[in-house]
Structure formats: structure tokens, C-alpha cells
Fold:
Amino acid sequence: MEVHITSKQMVKPSSSNLHLLEPFQLSLLDQLASRYYTCSILFYAEPRADTSRFSGRLKRSLSDALAQFYPLAGRVKNNLFISDYDEGALYVEAEVKCRLSDFVGRAQELGALNQLLPCRPFCYVQDSNAPQLAFQVNVFDCGGIALALCGLHKMVDAATGFAFLKSWAAFNRGSSGEIPIPSMLGALSRLLPPIESMPENADLKSLFFGDGRRRVTRSFMFDANAIATLKLRAESKSLEHPSRVLALTAFLWKHAIRAGISVSGTPKPVFLCQPVSIRQRMRPQLPSYSIGNMFLPIFAKYNPAGQHIDQSELCVLLRQTAQSVPNNSQDVLQGFKTITEQVSQIAEMVSKGNANFYVLSSWLNTYEPNEDFGWGKPSLISIPEVDSNIPGLINWFFLKNTGAGRHNGIEVWITLSDKEMGFLEHDPEFLAFASPTPSFGKI
Structure:
């Protein structure tokens, strides 16, 4: 597949008065967040009508959306605030020399998706002046479109990114994409103001990113029947009705632990980090367009004795950990020191080879990009693989709902070391529930 870049530019906000605004403060949780791009790709099968009008309209509507979400057009300074709102977002246009249906339906590695991106996905970003938003509009020979969305996780969580996408799509359709209450953009940083200097031990970088091992990403599908069976297996006297997310999380963690033991030969403590959204938990609730990372990292710890791991025990442990998440800003502020101490202790154990660390992120029961830019709803939404050429996320699970007609199941992207993935892909108990997805889906 040949991808030819036809244009590359910075799109600036349409407002000319943004330079008059004060710097936008990061929140305490933004200061803790790592610098990497989360990426997704929306595939639209509808043919384009007029290429020149299509391109110009997209850029104008993007400019209007940036004026609404002006902090996302700026640059993060000193891990404290955002300024330079006229810097803008990266916007790339490309032509793809094949038909969209051929590209999507063909069995191929997830890495092929990375050619459709304007930046490297899920990898640590060193550039302190990197744009917070980057987009690539890929037009296929048939007229189909793949819109790649990348948000720097320093300020852009799922809700923030999708609220921006909703505004952009509305403007592009000719509707209003304006924010109802602009003053709520900075609500999180008012509730959880930044501190001048973050503790040295409050650094998730060493935990989230690669340790030099070769890593690979694979995707698997769990259909409704598999999930129902996993829920039954997860039941116990301590937990009578586990949710589908909880049951699947425990199953994935169990088999990652088994894979780790098979490679190292030695059981060791394992941690699972789950970024839990507090946007809906906060009182008062904050709207989706309030900018920032409204999640707290929670850490579950398990000490395996060997390859036999009780899935229901993991479920109870995960449930107990999730119940500790606070629901107001005062509790978050009071618990922040505990979080930084946990990060420091876990990082030390992992760096010495005395523990394994995993991360699980999810769009289930939260948000999912599904916006109509005037071309209809996307036919497929996919996630690229972690770039294996530079330090990127490792021991990572990502969950999202399957597309329509896919049995209301759950798709899971898994990134592990190549040896651990090799074990997982040949684990009969794992494969009894997980179906490898040989292609990106169907248009």
C-alpha cells in the first residue's frame, strides 16, 4: 500500500483575539499524566463529491473548533500551563493508492494502520513543543476516507478528545459546534490546581514505556457468549454479579501473568494500573468539554504462587481496588501523595526486576468516536499498534466495543513482549474465549 502525503500544515484557531487570554492552567492530574499520543482511525466508506471543497471545508471547521477549544491549540509550558494559542494543530492530507475495502478487508498486520497517522502512536514524546492535536485525512482511490485522530495525553483524555471531535464534526456539517458554557473549559484546574514542582517520584514514564524488550501488538475479539461465560466463572460468594468489564479484565490479567511466568520462569508480584475516569464521579459533575485528564490511576497488586491463578479472586481484588476511587476534589487532593508514593514504590520494584506492571485502558461504558462530518457515521473505528521502533507503551490492554453486527462483543488490543505474546497466542485456555482478528474489520 502506497500512502502519498499531499499537504502538511498547522491549522490555527479562527479567532484572532486568543493572544489576549491568560495562560490556561494544567490541573494536578494533568501534571501527573505522561506525554504520548493516543490515536484512533475512523473509516468512512462514503465517496467524496468534490476534493477541493472537501479539503477547504474540513480545515475551516477545524479552525472553528480550535477557537472553541483554544487551549488545545496551544503548547504546554513547564508542566504548569498552556499558552501560545495561535500555534494550532497539525493537519495532514494524504492519498492512499488502493480501495478502502481492499485495505480494510485484507489480512494484514496492525502496523499497516500506522501509515495513516500523522505521528507515532502510544510512544513517549520528547518534543516539549509538540502539538496537542494532530490529524491525517487519508483519501483512498475509491473516495473512501480514513480520518486519523491523535491527542497528546498530557491534556487530552478520551472525553476531551471526543468533545472536540463532536464540535469539529458539527461545524463541518454546517451546524453549531459551540461550547455551551465556555467558562467550564478550565473547571478541572480550578478544582485541582497545579503545584509548582511535582515530586520526583511522581513519574509514570518509567512504568508506562518500554524497557528495551521487543514488543508486539495483537487484537482479539470476545463475543457475547464468551463474555457471558467469563462472567459466570468470575462469580463467587464475595462477588455475585461481576460486570462484563470486570470479568474480562480479570481474565486478561490472569493470562498476562501466566505469560510472564512462562517467560521468566519465576512468579513475582504483579500490578495492574487502571486509569479510572472521575468526570462523572465528581460532585458537581463536569461536562465532557471541560479540558484535562479527569482520571486517577489505581493499582491492584497480586502475588501469584504459580501458573494456577483464580480468576474470581482477581475479580474481587479488582473490585476492591476500584471502590477506593474518590468522588470529590478534596479527597483527590488528599490522596495525591499516596498515589505518588505508590508510583515510586512500584517503579523501584519493576526497575529491579522484582515485579511486573500492566496497564488497562477502556472505552467501554464511556466514550467512543462516532461522529458524522457530513459523510455519515464511520463504518469502522480502529486502533493502531504501539510503534515498536521507539520507547512506547508495553504490557498494555485496550478495550472497546465491537462494531455493529459483531455480536455485541468486545475488541481487545494487547501489547506485550514478543515472547510473552508468543505464549499467549498459543495458550489454549485463552484462545477458547479470544478470537484473533486477522484484519481490521469489514466496511
In short: Residues 3-191 form a domain with the Chloramphenicol Acetyltransferase fold (CATH 3.30.559.10). The chain has two domains: 3-191, 205-366+387-436. The chain has a mean pLDDT of 88.
